[in-house]
Amino acid sequence: MKLDELFALLRRRGVLWPSAEIYGGAQGLYDYGPLGAALKRRLEDAWVAWFVGLSHDYHRIEPSELLPEAVVRASGHLENFTDPEVTCESCHSAFRAETVLEKARPEGVDGLSPAQIGALLGSLGVRCPNCGSTALSVPRPFNLMFGTELGVTGKERAYLQPETAQASYLSFARMWDVGRRALPLGIAVIGKAYRNEIAPRQILFRMRSFTQAELQIFFHPQRFPVPFDRVAAETVPVVRADRRGPEGSPPETVTAAALVGSGLPEFYVYHLVHMLRFLRDVLRYPAERIRFFEKSDAERAFYNKIQFDAEVRLESLGGFREVGAVHYRGDYDLTRHGQGSGRDLSVTPTGEASVLPHVLELTFGVDRNLWALADVHLARDGERTVWHLPPYLAPVPVGVFPLIPKAQATYALELADALAADGVAAQYDDAGTIGKRYARMDEAGVPFCVTVDGGTVGEGAERDTVTLRERDSRAQERLPRSALTGRMTPALRPPRPSRA
Amino acid sequence: MKLDELFALLRRRGVLWPSAEIYGGAQGLYDYGPLGAALKRRLEDAWVAWFVGLSHDYHRIEPSELLPEAVVRASGHLENFTDPEVTCESCHSAFRAETVLEKARPEGVDGLSPAQIGALLGSLGVRCPNCGSTALSVPRPFNLMFGTELGVTGKERAYLQPETAQASYLSFARMWDVGRRALPLGIAVIGKAYRNEIAPRQILFRMRSFTQAELQIFFHPQRFPVPFDRVAAETVPVVRADRRGPEGSPPETVTAAALVGSGLPEFYVYHLVHMLRFLRDVLRYPAERIRFFEKSDAERAFYNKIQFDAEVRLESLGGFREVGAVHYRGDYDLTRHGQGSGRDLSVTPTGEASVLPHVLELTFGVDRNLWALADVHLARDGERTVWHLPPYLAPVPVGVFPLIPKAQATYALELADALAADGVAAQYDDAGTIGKRYARMDEAGVPFCVTVDGGTVGEGAERDTVTLRERDSRAQERLPRSALTGRMTPALRPPRPSRA
User: Which of A397, B48, B87, B141 could form a disulfide with B82 if both were Cys (CB 3.0 to 4.6 A apart)?
Assistant: First the structure.
C-alpha cells in the first residue's frame, strides 16, 4: 500500500493518528490508539526477550529523559547534534538542506560541509519548495534538541534526550556497582527520544518524539567472547561501503564467517547476525526485504568505528529504510562523560587491571518497526484485509464471539474474562454477522477467534466446547474450552535467543 | 524505615538513583535500575489489568507527551497551572510558598490567594530558609509547565504535558469514531507528566518528571449504570471535608451504601471502592494504612465536583500521603477543548439525543506507589531484610541457583532459560553460599527460589527434581522441574476485577 492509503487504514482502525487531531494535528507527533499501543507494548516486550535475553548480565533500566546541559555538552550534542538548515531569502521559509536537495541529489548530504552544500544548491539550480526562488542561504547548523529550563531561575538549562543511549552511559558506574562487576555488561533502555526535526514527515519515520529501544554493551577492549561458531555459517545480506552498486542493486549475500574474513571483529558480526535474526525470525520480515547497509568513513559519526544500518524495503516508502543499526562506538562515550563529570569511569574486573570499556550499541526504532510491521504484514486479499502479524505481536491475541448474542452473550463474556485472567487478553465482539466479525479481527491482526454457539451452552455432547479459528489458515477446530489456553499460549510467546 | 535509610537501601540495590548521578545528580529526576524498572512495569501491568479490566469498553492508548500551546491554553494550564512562589528580597532565593510556610502552617495554602499568603508570611513572622531574612515577597504565580519550541521559527510553543489526562480528552473524538460509539467509554493512559517543581523533594513524591496512570471515563451525565449492589456493603475509610478531626485522627469507616446515603452518586462511590480494592487487595497495603481524604470546595480545583484523594500512611514520610485520587470533573474538559478547537465534542449514541459526556477520572501515581510498595513491604527481621511484594509485582519472579556451581551450573542456566521461555523471568545466581543467595533474593522481593543440586543432575530418583523455596513462609518443597511453571504461575498473575 502507498503511504497515504496505509496511514488512512491505520487511522481508521485506531492504530495511530496525529496528536492533538481536533486542533488540526501537531507536526511530527502521533498518538497510538488501542491497537497501536498494544502492538507497541508487545513489540517492546519481544525486543526485550530477544536482546536483553542475550545474556544474564544484560539488564533493562528506565532512566529520566531530561538531561542537564553538562551531559549534552560532554556528549557533543550541544555542539554537533545539528541538521543543515537552509532559509529562503525571498519568502523566509526554513528547510532541511537534505529535503531541498532530495530530488537533485537523492543520496543525501551526509559528510558534506555547509559550504559544499551551499555550492551544490547553486550548481544544481535548486529552488525554494515554497516560493520557487533560487535565493537560498548557505546552510547553517540548527540544533535538533528541545531545550527547556529547570527551576525558577531560568539559568539551569536541560534538554529532552536526543537518544536513549546517553542515559545508559550515565548509569554505567552505578550499574557496575550494583551488578556482578564483570564485563561484558549490557544496559538496555526503551524510552522516548526527542528531535526538533525541521521537516517531520513520512509519519513514523521522522517524528519529533519517538521511542527507541537500545542496548549498550560495555566490554573489555581486548576481548568480547562470543560463541561465533554458532553463527559462522549464517548468510547476511550486506551492502559494503566500498562496493556499492547503483541505487537498487541487490545486496551481496555473504556468510558471517566471510564478514569476519573481510576484517570485521567476531563480536560485531555475531551481534549483526542477532539483529538479522530478530528482524527475519521474530518480526518475520521476508529475508529479501532486509539488508545491512554499511556506512562509509564520511557518512558515519566520527566516534563510530563500524556502523551497519539495518534496513527494510517498504512499499509505502518506496525503498529500503533504516529501522535499526549496530554501532561499534569504541571508548568515546565513557571518555567524554569521564571528562565531563570529572569521574574516572574505568573499572577493575576481579583480578584484572583497570580498563575503560568499549561500547557496542544495538539500536532499534520502535515506531519505525511498528510502521514496517504494518507495511510488510498487512495484505489485501480481494475484499479481505488481513494483518498477518506474528501471533506474539498481535495487539489482541483472541477475539471471543457469541454466535447468537441473545443466547450466548453471558457465556462468551465470562469466557473472555476467564481467558484474560489466564493471561490471554481477549476482545469480546457481538456486532454483525460472524463473517463481519472475522473480517474485523483479521484486519486488526487477531490470530485466533473463538466462537461460542448453541452447542457450547447446551446440555449435549458439545457442552463447553467452542470453535477456534486461525487467522492465516482460516482453519477451524472444535475443542473443549479448557484446552484453549494451552492451545494458543505457545504461539503467543515471543522467541528468545538460545544462550545455553 | 526513615526516608534516607530507605533511599540508601533502594539505591544500593539498584532500584533507583538520582539521574545523571556522576554529574552530581539532577534535582527531582530519578533513574530506575533493573529492579525498579521491572517493578514499575509490573505495577503498570497490574494497574491495567485492574482498571482497564473494569469494562470491555475501556482501552489504553499511548499519546505524545508534547502539547501544542493551544491545548494548554484551552485546558487552563497556561493561566492556572501555577504554584505561589516567594522570593527573598535579601538573598534572592526562590521558594514555594507552601514550603516556606510548612512549619508555621502545616495544613498548606490550598485555596488561599497570593495576598492572603503574603499576609500570613508577615503575621507568622516567617523567615527565608536560606538567609533568615523576613523580607519575603508577596507570592507570585510560577507556571510549573516545561515549555519548549517546535520547529525552526521559535514561534510554535509547546509544553511537556503536566498531566496525562489532557491527551485522553484530545483523543475522545477519535476514540468515539473507532469504537462502539457507546457510553461509558474509558480511555487509559500510562505516561510521563512533567512539572517544573520549585522545590522537588522527598525522592519520588515530588519529581519533575514522573509517571501517571490515569483512566478517564466518559459517561452520559444522566446515567452511569454500575452494579452498585456488589459494593454496597464494603466499608471505606474516609475523612469527610466537613467532619475532619484534629491532625492524626483515625478516618471514619463507613459503608459504600452510607456514602451514597450522604449524597455521593453511586457511580462515584463504586469507583472509590474499586480504588480501595486495588490499594488493599492488589497492592496489599494494610487496610489501616489507607484512607480517602475528601477535598473541600476551597481545596479542590473549581471544575472538580467531587474529589477524594487516596492516601497511604508511610513511615518514611511520616504520615498519610496522596498516591491517587478519584475526580468527578463534569463536562469541564470537553467543553474547554470544544471551545479551544472549534469542534463540537458532543456525541450521539445510537437512538439517542446528542450529549456532551461528563468525565470521571481515576488517577494513580506510579512512582509514588512504587515508593509506597517499598515503604510498606520492606521489612527488617533481625539480620534479614525481606521485601514482601505481592508475587505478581516482584521484579524478578524466580531465582535459580546451582547448589554447587561447578557441578550444576549448566543445568541451572538451562533451567533459567527454559523458565524464561515459559514466561517466568528467572535470575541465575551462583555467588556465595545458598544462605547468602536467599538473602539477596529476599531483599530484592523475589518470591520463589529454585535450587538445583546433585540429585537433580544425578541418575537416581531425584533426577530432574528441584527444591522450591517460598520467600515469605521460607517453606521448601521438592518437586519435578516440569511442575515448576504450573506451581508458580497462578501467584504471578495480577488480580482482575470481577465484571461478569
Answer: B141
